[in-house]
Structure formats: structure tokens, C-alpha cells
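Researcher: We plan to redesign the surface later, but first we want a full-length starting point. C-alpha cells attached.
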């Protein structure tokens, strides 16, 4: 329901809030296509029709931009519709991530597939999904993305128990390592967490996960948790591996982290970065201790 971003999300799905000048979901679809997955199924719910509109063609807008000769904006509009083939299915009821993934069973069939959560952005320079696909190809089973968030923060995430690191992810120079997952628990108390490694919003799953989800009763929060289904697979002897990510991740589901993501991505842009970096240096230098800008007049 996007309650963290009210009142903006009264009318705009949180997944379409702009991160610089593109919604978070466009970054997600581009990531999937870059990894060689051009068929994308979005699992949505009520009041999310604007998402389908965003990935649809807009002939009137395109014609107006073409008539004006505004090729750069026309290209930007085409990027959102041409990057991948996007399909949609509705979840119906918000019964948890596991239940949402189950809605994709007919679309996926008997093939491995990736799950990308819409509020987790991975920097385009860090090919996490490609690494995970390579690990799944090598080991089979399921692969999950992990991030060391510190034990003091682990109660906000799904946590894992692991064996010792096996190796560095194939084709990776960032130092990301591959581990065998031996246990999973959703949002454990800090003193009961099996590690400080948190599950983040990237999964590469085998189709066996669907039967595991069907057999998984509601868990924490009364929802069908994907974490619980993956634990069922581990207990049945199916291989589940994790890629411990050491790259750049942006959480757009939290207001402060959302703002950080906008700034971090904007400063890397050729068109915005130089001027924004210069302004940021000046702005930070003006900040008094204890907060506030100290300014009495608007600045450009």
C-alpha cells in the first residue's frame, strides 16, 4: 500500500516513484534484460494499473515528441517500452511474498526463473543477477542474494545459516562469494539470528519451489513466506546457495534510503553529476551543526 510514502502514494504506486527520472521498476526491468531475461512477469494488485500503463506504448505522446523533433525524450519513452516484453498478473490478495511468487507458476513452467523485488535496486555496474544465474547453472537448485547488514539490523530481514564460503562467484571481480545455505529464518530476534547475512531482493529459483510454497502454511505476519518455502527445500535436501553481495545496493522502500539512492545515482550521471556534485559540496559546507541549512533566501 506504500504507506511509508503517503500522501504521494495515494495516487501513484510506490513502484513508480521516480529515482532521478525513471521509476524504480524500470531499473529492475533493465537489470533483468541485461542479464539475458527479456520476458518479465510483474505480479501486481489492485490500484496498480498505472504500472501497466507505464510499460505500454503511448502513441499520442510519441507523436507529439516526434513532431517537436525532441529525439532525446522520444528515445527515453521508447526505452521504457522496448527494453523487455512485460506481462502482468494480479495477486488478488496480499498473502505474502511466497504467495506472490506462486502466481507466476503457469508463466514459468518447468524452468528456473529469477525474482527481483521492486524496492531493491542493484547498481548497473554490479552484475549480481548474472552471477546468481551462473551459480544456479553450475549447482542447480535455488540461489539467493545475501548482504551482511550487521547483527544489530538482522531482525528486519530474513537471515540465513551457512557453511563456509565455497568460492568466488563465476566471472566476478568484486569479491562476492558463494556459500551453501543450511537454514533460513524470517526476521529473527537479534540474539537468535543464525548470522548477520540478510536475504535481499534477488532470487534465482528452481521450479521445485512452487510445490514447496503450496505446502508452506502462513508464517510470520500471517503471510506465506518465501523464506519458509526455501527452508522446506533445504530440509528436503535441495541445494540452496547464496551469493554474498559486496556491491552497490539502493533501498527505495525507505524514505531516507530512497533519497540517498536518488543522490547517489544522480551524481553518477554525465548530464547531472558535475553540477550536482559541485552544489552538494557547497550545500554541505553551509550546514550548521545540529541541522538546518542556515539559509534565509532561496538558492538555485
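Model: Full-length starting sequence:
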Amino acid at each position: 500500500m506504500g504507506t511509508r510514502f503517503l500522501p504521494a502514494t495515494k495516487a501513484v504506486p510506490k513502484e513508480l516513484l521516480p529515482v532521478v527520472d525513471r521509476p524504480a521498476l524500470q531499473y529492475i526491468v533493465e537489470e533483468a534484460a541485461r542479464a539475458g531475461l527479456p520476458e518479465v512477469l510483474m505480479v501486481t494488485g489492485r490500484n496498480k494499473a498505472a504500472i501497466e500503463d507505464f510499460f505500454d506504448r503511448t502513441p499520442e505522446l510519441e507523436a507529439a515528441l516526434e513532431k517537436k523533433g525532441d529525439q532525446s525524450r522520444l528515445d527515453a519513452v521508447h526505452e521504457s517500452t522496448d527494453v523487455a516484453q512485460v506481462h502482468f498478473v494480479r495477486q488478488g490478495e496480499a498473502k505474502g511474498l511466497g504467495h506472490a511468487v506462486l502466481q507466476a507458476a503457469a508463466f514459468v513452467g518447468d524452468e528456473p526463473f529469477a525474482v527481483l523485488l521492486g524496492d531493491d535496486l542493484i547498481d548497473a555496474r554490479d552484475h549480481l543477477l548474472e552471477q546468481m544465474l551462473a551459480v544456479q547453472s553450475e549447482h542447480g537448485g535455488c540461489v539467493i542474494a545475501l548482504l551482511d547488514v550487521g547483527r544489530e539490523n538482522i531482525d528486519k530481514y530474513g537471515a540465513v545459516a551457512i557453511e563456509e564460503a565455497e568460492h568466488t562467484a563465476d566471472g566476478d571481480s568484486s569479491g562476492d562469494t558463494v556459500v551453501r545455505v543450511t537454514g533460513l529464518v524470517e526476521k529473527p530476534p537479534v540474539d537468535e539470528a543464525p548470522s548477520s547475512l540478510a536475504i535481499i531482493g534477488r532470487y534465482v529459483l528452481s521450479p521445485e519451489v512452487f510445490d514447496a510454497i503450496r505446502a508452506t502454511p502462513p508464517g510470520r505476519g500471517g503471510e506465506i513466506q518465501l523464506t519458509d518455502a526455501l527452508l522446506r527445500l533445504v530440509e528436503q535436501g535441495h541445494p540452496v546457495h547464496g551469493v554474498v553481495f559486496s556491491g552497490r545496493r539502493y533501498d527505495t522502500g525507505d524514505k531516507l534510503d530512497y533519497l540517498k539512492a536518488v543522490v547517489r545515482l544522480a551524481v553518477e550521471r554525465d548530464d547531472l553529476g558535475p553540477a550536482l556534485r559541485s552544489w552538494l559540496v557547497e550545500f554541505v559546507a553551509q550546514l550548521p551543526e545540529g541541522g538546518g541549512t542556515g539559509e534565509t533566501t532561496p538558492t538555485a
